[in-house]
Amino acid sequence: MSPRKFFHPDVSELTLHRILFALSDPTRLAVVLDLLKDGERASGDLLAESVPRSTMTHHLKILREAGVTRTRPEGMRCLISLRREDVDARFPGLLDAIMAHGGAEASAP
Amino acid sequence: MSPRKFFHPDVSELTLHRILFALSDPTRLAVVLDLLKDGERASGDLLAESVPRSTMTHHLKILREAGVTRTRPEGMRCLISLRREDVDARFPGLLDAIMAHGGAEASAP
DNA sequence: TACGATGTACGACGAAAATCGTACATAAAC
DNA sequence: GTTTATGTACGATTTTCGTCGTACATCGTA
Fold it and tell me: Chains A, B: CB contacts under 8 A, how many?
């Protein structure tokens, strides 16, 4: 009965165009802006009102496999956080620039 | 006999997710990194060896309509440049972060 | 004007992505 | 063990994207 496992790429495997692609979808960008503002959040609380669960799972998988987020199971739920240090280490200033933009288009599509 | 015209979005119309999408394709990212390094360049000189002209036109159109680049006709050719001030005004630090990454994945796909 | 050079428009094709319903898996509580 | 809450896996569908050939437009020059 192993706990749930999630693949997370190593820092050295992060590529710029993959990260940019992950952030180029309005829904995923809104998620990341939420995380930048509020820190770790339960996946079910992210845009819960406007996106079906299976769709959110899909987007979170893309963010996770691009190395942008970390998924940590906690009981029944999943806690999502940014891999800020990792992304910063490889692409310094990128998340800062995105966070600086802030809530201007943080709403869901 | 009007000269060729190209649509360029106003600074206020730039959106983060559109810009990130424009930069998320390896070919387009390579073009932008070239422009960051060398300044204005003729479109025909960009990745000329590896990308057919109609394909390059397509990518340059996406970059231009996202507000990342400016296209300026000069005789038979088209000179492409980054709209650095405009992108910087709206998303400070974004291009800096991308340029900092530099040539690590500047090669074509 | 006719020609060669450069770039665009358009269309077709295949690949990839976004959405989401349903079925299944996991974890906690009863 | 059963139930309930949460999230994933899978598949189907539709849309979008990337590629590129061909035809056309623009520009300079002979």
Answer: 69
Instruction: Among A17, A97, A105, select the one facing B94 at the smallest CB separation.
Output: A97
Interface contact B29-A15, CB threshold 8 A: no
- CATH code for the domain of B92: 1.10.10.10
Give dist(CA A53, CA A30) in Å, integer: 16
User: Distance between CA atoms of B78 and B61, rounded to whole angstroms?
Assistant: 12
Task: Express each pLDDT in A53-69 by its tens digit.
Answer: 999 999 999 999 999 99
For residue A48, give its domain range: 13-100
CA A62, CA A56: separation in Å to the nearest integer? 10
**Which DSSP symbol is given to A83?**
-
Which tens digits make up the pLDDT trace of A55-105? 999 999 999 999 999 999 999 999 999 999 999 999 999 999 998 876 555
Which residue from B minimizes the CA distance to A92? B97
- Smallest CA–CA distance, residue B102 to chain A, in Å, is 10
